[in-house]
Amino acid sequence: MGTVEERLGEMREAFRSGKTKCEKWRRSQLMALLALVREEEEGIFSALNRDLGKHRAEAFRDEVGVLIKSINFALSSLKQWMAPKSVKVPLVSFPSSATVVPEPLGVVLLFSSWNFPIGLALEPIIGAFSAGNVVALKPSELAPSSAEFLAEAIPRYLDGAAVKVFLGGPSVGSQLLEQRWDKILFTGSPRVGRVVMAAAAEHLTPVILELGGKCPAIVDSIGSSEQKVAAKRLVAGKWGPCCGQACVGIDYILVERQFASTLIDMLRRTVKSLYGDSRNLSRIVNRQHFMRLEGLLKDPSVSASVVHGGRFDSDNLKIEPTILLDPPLDSEIMTEEVFGPLLPIITLEKIGDSIAFVRDRPKPLAIYVFSNDEALKKRVVAETSSGSVTFNDTMIQFAVDTLPFGGVGGSGFGRYHGKFSFDAFSHEKAVMRRQFLLDFPLRYPPWNETKLRF
Ligand code: NAD
């Protein structure tokens, strides 16, 4: 195995050898990653089931399927991404030409989180390898079966000198952060994000922070013909991804007071039809998080606001989909990221008031808007700030390779996915080419007034 320093030394050596710069190597690693995801599908399903009780269909939709799509997109785009791009040059430099040449950064460190422990570990590797880097991966210790799966499967499929998995908890994270890396991509909490950024500052290492926050869904009073689809998408956006333990999942809903009871009826019926059987719902990752979620309902003014669900099964770490109507805005459930199956609904006089509500709080990773009102949609895009805005659906933006994925403000910074991942792990080098012809004397001293504005 070796120490962190020894393993890092091996990775530096692999990068210095230059092999990762060839298109052939990059392509072979992407193909190997594709083979890993396809051939080890059963191993992935069972790890996700052990860690989170994820159903194989959910595991395919949110992790395996997304990865296959992303790898295929990278394979079909790689040549184009790697090609130097010619840029215009000003007349003053005539004759000349200039290109922007992407070059790999070197050895990059990836911290992945436990809620999509396979998807969020492998997705950044697609970008890092496409851009020709070497990777150190630190999976979350809170999803141990997935972490062990990655540590066992990755060296069987990928170039072992160019990707290494570091198992362990915060102490291993700290050891890794003491080293110098060429880039760090961290997925996790704002608290640890600060630790990562402070450590990176020591070495002037650039970072991408993929953090969380409270993602609102603004639900306008939509027509009855559209309510069925809207309800399914809202319910799937709250309870579908890992039982609400998702950074881009809905945290709370904003709705006009007069539409609230219709919305609650819609949600109740849909929750029963989609998640009436609790086997369709993932479980809470561990007892500590289960107790944290239980604690959010302890306050009597919060528990009194429960209008649906509220049952906790501590033996199986399962929580019933739970809807709360107007819990106090200063209660923990409205000030902290919920990251679980509890859904507060906040009523407003006018749906337009949702803009000020969102703006008064930290910038979210995602905003969802269900509406047919074009003016409201325009206002949300123009007057709020968030990692993404999605109209009339939830979560789907995550799987679109041509959109950047990342936060802003409190939800993090930097972006990845598709070409944005390639760019995130590349340095864009400016390359300028000149000849010895035409050397203008005006650019050189001795200075005089005629040279002032040439
Ligand atoms: P966390 O911040 O507690 O842990 C993340 C990683 O950091 C783990 O690998 C852990 O071992 C390591 N770590 C913890 N303490 C450390 C320390 N002191 N020094 C070095 N390393 C340390 O994350 P979490 O609470 O398990 O994850 C949930 C959070 O992640 C939520 O806020 C969620 O919104 C966010 N998240 C964001 C995204 C995204 O893509 N933006 C995706 C998933 C989750």
Automatic annotation (TrEMBL):
Instruction: Give the catalysed reaction(s), semicolon-separated.
Output: an aldehyde + NAD(+) + H2O = a carboxylate + NADH + 2 H(+)
Hey, what's the signal peptide range on this chain?
A: none
Could you list this entry's UniProt keywords, alphabetically sorted: NAD, Oxidoreductase
Q: Which parts pass through the membrane?
A: none
Ranges where the Aldehyde dehydrogenase domain occurs = 5-431
Q: Which family does it belong to?
A: Belongs to the aldehyde dehydrogenase family.
Q: What is the protein named? A: Aldehyde dehydrogenase
**Species in which this protein is naturally found:** Spirodela intermedia
Q: What is the lineage of its organism?
A: Eukaryota, Viridiplantae, Streptophyta, Embryophyta, Tracheophyta
